[in-house]
Design a protein that fits this description.
The chain is an alpha+beta fold and 99 residues long. The chain folds into 2 domains: 41 residues, no CATH class; 56 residues, no CATH class. It contains 4 helices and 4 strands. The strands form 2 sheets. Strands 1-2 form a two-stranded parallel sheet. It has a two-stranded antiparallel ribbon with strand order 3-4.
Amino acid sequence: MAIERLEMLDLDGAIVTVGALRCQKAIVGKILERGADYLVVLKANRGKKFIAGRDHGADTGFSRTPAERPIHDACDEGHGRLMRRWVFICPLARALELY
């Protein structure tokens, strides 16, 4: 169903955000085919995909001398917990095979 919805939208030059449930190769492929970039959520239950993303982040963004800095850093509180979110641009996402 999500792929059909993407067909209805003009995505050229857009950034599409995708929750963990929709982090699938076919959906990401359709987003790219429609001329957009994407932001996906990777949760720990995504196995190897999560590990690849986590390890890349540790190597490039969270080391003592990071190669990359987050473009967004935010904290919020909800559901009894404090959440900190970092957003990085990863031009190597295809090489990581996250989708």
